Each structure stands twice: as C-alpha cells, then as structure tokens.
Amino acid sequence: MSMKKVPLRQCIGCGEMKSKKEMIRVIKTADEEILLDATGRKNGRGAYLCPSMECMKKAVKSKGLERSFKMAIPKEVYDALEKEMEALGR
Prior knowledge:
Pfam family, one: YlxR
Domain YlxR: 9-83
Largest sheet: 3 strands, antiparallel
Order of helices and strands: EEEEEHHH
Mean pLDDT: 88
Strand order of the largest sheet: 4-3-5
Radius of gyration: 13 Å
Protein name: YlxR domain-containing protein
Structural class: alpha+beta
Helix content: 25-40%
Number of domains: 1
CATH superfamily: YlxR-like
InterPro entries: YlxR, YlxR-like_sf, YlxR_dom
Strand content: 15-25%
C-alpha cells in the first residue's frame, strides 16, 4: 500500500513547512476582504500561519500578509485576526 501524501504549507511568520491541518488559513476574498478561514474551505487566495501569537507577530513584522496578498493590510485587519486567533485559544 502506498502512503497518502500530506499537503504541506509554509507559515508566513516563521517560514516552517507544516501539514495543512495544523495551520490557520488567512484568506483574501474577491471583495478584497481579509478573513480567518477555520474550515480551510472558503474561496479566496490563502496564506497560512502557525497557530501561535509569536508567528502572528513575525508575520506582521515581516509584512508576510502584504507579500502574500500583494496589497496593503490595514492595522484593523491585524487586530481582528489577533482577536479571532485568541478566540480559537491559540
């Protein structure tokens, strides 16, 4: 029997490759809206973060989301993402 391939994604904060299921997906919708995608199934351009505040802070500092989505990200979006991440208990 062959082993099933595990999809890997790179964290925009720390740059580590981890399995897709371990990570939090941040998406940019067609309306240019930035959201956390807990299900991993919403439509939109995705970027992945480790489920830790440390990686979130690294992503903010290195402008990881700006690079991934090729647009400026307002501070309110980062604040909302931080609150959502805290609500997830990470």
